[in-house]
TrEMBL record:
Keywords: Endonuclease, Hydrolase, Metal-binding, Nuclease, Toxin-antitoxin system. It comes from the Archaea. Residues 5-103 form the PIN domain. Toxic component of a type II toxin-antitoxin (TA) system. Processes pre-16S-rRNA at its 3' end (the D-site) to yield the mature 3' end. Belongs to the NOB1 family. Pfam families: PIN_6 (PF17146). The lineage of its organism: Archaea, Methanobacteriati, Thermoplasmatota, Thermoplasmata, Thermoplasmatales. It comes from Ferroplasma acidiphilum. This is Endoribonuclease Nob1. The gene is nob1. One of its GO terms (cellular component) is preribosome, small subunit precursor. GO terms for biological process: maturation of SSU-rRNA.
Length: 157
């Protein structure tokens, strides 16, 4: 197994139906599997003998920090953060159709591949703009502290 590239599988890739889940080299974050078990796809897991893994705390912190930097943090679930953290920890490749995960992966220099659809071509840096006074914020806040209007995400090209 040493030296072999690991592929970190996220929920969207699991559900795409394009993966041979018993393939060697795939890593399943424990939280992804738990998420799928909650759904109707438990059958997939019964037939495959797969091993799950959880990322180390320091890698979760790194993934969070990166997601905050790109502005994707609020679009990511704890499971998504685990996927990113495992990819950082194992220097693996993420299989995902989730644009927010792909964007953070790109920012971190992590390779990724779409499970079914093609990935984004370039990284997007998200910014947040007040719908009232148009002030720009780097991080997501629900309400503008200046004028009280909603703050919405937009992409800075
Ligand atoms: Zn405002």
């Amino acid at each position: 197994m040493e030296g072999k590239k690991k592929y970190i599988i996220d929920t969207s890739a699991m559900l795409s139906g394009n993966l041979n889940i018993s393939e060697d080299g795939y890593v399943y974050p424990e939280s992804v599997i738990n998420e799928i078990k909650k759904g109707s796809l438990e059958k997939i897991l019964e037939v495959a003998n797969i091993t799950t893994r959880s990322p180390g705390k320091e890698y979760i912190a790194k993934a969070r920090e990166a997601a905050l930097s790109t502005g994707d943090y609020n679009a990511l679930s704890a499971t998504d953060i685990d996927v990113l953290a495992l990819a950082i920890e194992l220097n693996g490749i993420i299989i995902t159709d989730d644009y927010a995960i792909q964007n953070v992966a790109k920012y971190c220099g992590i390779a990724y591949s779409g499970g079914g659809i093609s990935g984004i071509k370039k990284g997007i840096i998200w910014k947040y703009r007040c719908t009232g006074c148009h002030k720009i914020y780097d991080e997501y806040i629900k309400t503008c502290p200046i004028c009280g209007h909603d703050v919405k995400r937009y992409s800075k090209k």
